[in-house]
Design goal:
Strand content: 25-35%
Oligomer: single chain
Largest sheet: 6 strands, mixed
Distance between the termini: 17 Å
Number of helices: 11
Helix content: 25-40%
Shape: elongated
Number of strands: 17
Length: 352
């Protein structure tokens, strides 16, 4: 028998999430890539795979929310542990990279996660969603390595690989222009006159432009960047970096952060507050530990007050960081509780 006593649990735990998004434009990403993450692994062992799936899910959350720090937030950290349960499929692949003239072979795990589960978790967590379709970014990049300035065009995609890869990690598609003579002329002065490339970008079907100029210095690279959307300058910044690849990857992150700030919105999960909730089917001490442990693992649950125990039912008050709608969304994709009776005071049944 469970003790019929009022108990208080102050929580500060964890949750996770993710919702709708797609990357757009001429080269539009599909749902599979939106809800797909990948990460390098050292082996295909069980513990390594578990950790890799969590990293892949964290990547999906960043894509969808537009927030780089989303996986470290309390309402996200806990549910990273559900990655294996909501992964629809995963696969390993081999890749090679040349470092200092020597080929380095590595393994990568790629996993695709259930869209409805991710969407519900994000809604329940109260995280923002950067919706689809997302316009691709037209990259107008000029690099001067000390031997003259040159525009990075579509035939030089590997030069900007660190930028395009990081943009893909953030759920964005990057288009490199053809670099014809008119485009090269405009790109050469685009940092000072960014409007020069706005009209040219219409040929690539996107209103978003990232203009960059990298110049080699004695200490590394000086990078100037301008981000435009619909002809409006959203941001301008400078980055001094010893590594040109890192400077380009940083620019993709800053561009994604800026665009997410403009477009991402919180999916309604209802206003936060204290709600009366019951859990039925709690017949043993193990059932009690499982039910309470599950609630304590949800970052949206800020506090639990157990009011009474009646037969196999726990009546409690939950202080939620979202509304009941958000709580229902989170529970619906879990494997612990199911909604038995809805209403102002919903009843959930503990899975056997």
């Amino acid at each position: 028998m469970l003790p019929d006593a009022t108990m208080r649990h102050t929580l500060s735990c964890l949750l996770l999430a993710a919702c709708l998004l797609v990357a757009p434009g001429i080269v539009q990403a599909d749902d599979a890539s939106t809800y797909q993450g990948s990460t390098l692994v050292n082996s295909q062992g069980g513990s390594e795979k578990t950790a890799a799936l969590q990293r892949a899910l964290a990547q999906v959350i960043v894509k969808i929310t537009g927030q780089r720090d989303a996986p470290s937030q309390p309402q996200v950290r806990g549910l990273l542990g559900t990655a294996a349960q909501i992964a629809q499929d995963s696969r390993y692949s081999a890749e090679a990279e040349t470092i200092n003239g020597a080929p380095i072979y590595r393994q990568r795990l790629t996993a695709r996660f259930d869209r409805s589960a991710v969407d519900a978790l994000i809604a329940g967590a109260g995280l923002p969603v950067w919706p689809s379709p997302r316009a691709p970014i037209v990259l107008w990049l000029v690099i001067d390595d000390g031997h003259g300035a040159r525009m990075v065009g579509a035939t030089h995609v590997n030069v900007a690989k660190s930028l395009t890869d990081r943009a893909s990690d953030r759920g964005l598609v990057v288009i490199l222009p053809a670099a014809n003579p008119a485009e090269e002329t405009a790109a050469a002065s685009a940092i000072a006159q960014p409007q020069a490339v706005v009209a040219l970008s219409s040929a690539y079907g996107s209103p978003v432009q990232l203009v960059g100029k990298l110049a080699r210095t004695s200490g590394g690279w000086n990078a100037d960047w301008v981000l435009l959307d619909g002809g409006v300058e959203l941001g301008r910044w400078n980055d001094v970096n010893p590594d040109a690849r890192l400077a380009m990857a940083n620019a993709a992150d800053i561009a994604a952060d800026t665009l997410a700030k403009k477009y991402a919105r919180v999916v309604a999960g209802g206003p936060p507050g204290t709600f009366t909730v019951s859990i039925d089917g709690v017949r043993t001490a193990d059932d009690y530990v499982r039910a309470m442990g599950y609630l304590e693992s949800l970052g949206i649950v800020r506090r639990i007050v157990l009011v009474r125990v009646v037969d196999a039912r726990l009546d409690m008050q939950l202080d939620l960081a979202t509304g009941l709608e958000g709580f229902r969304n989170v529970v619906a994709v879990g494997q612990v509780l199911e909604l038995a009776s809805d209403g102002a005071n919903p009843v959930f049944r503990l899975h056997p």
